[in-house]
Structures are given as structure tokens and as C-alpha cells.
Amino acid sequence: MITGEVAAHLRCSPSTVRRMVRRGQIPHYRFGKLVRFRLSEIERWLTLQQEGAALLRGKSTPPNSDQLSLFPTGGENGE
Fold this sequence. Notes:
This protein is mainly alpha-helical.
């Protein structure tokens, strides 16, 4: 994909996509002066961005019971 196609896909301006490329905020490939994108990587990146925004809004996914908790919720010493 080229910058204009990514911009249309993300519903933003091509200059926004170019700025994100300069800052290293979006996955891309550089071939000399040419910048190209893979649709699959843009989709994955977009999903991660949306999940991060949901976490910031407090709409996190349920906690994984296999993960260690730093904040005890009761039990032996965490009463």
C-alpha cells in the first residue's frame, strides 16, 4: 500500500500518515525515498491502538487468572 491508500483506510490525511512514519508510530517499509505499508500490519497496528484506547477509557478486558496480581484481593495475607 502507499501513503494515500493507508490514509483512506485510516480515514485521515496523507500528511498525518507521513508524520506517523517520521515518528516511527506506524509500521512501514522504506525503499530509498519510497514508503510502503502492508495491509495486514496496518490492521494489526490499528487493533492494538483501539485496544489501548479502550484500556485508557477503563473498558479493559477481564483479568487473566493465570497472571500474577500485584494487589491482593483477600486470602492469606491480603485480608
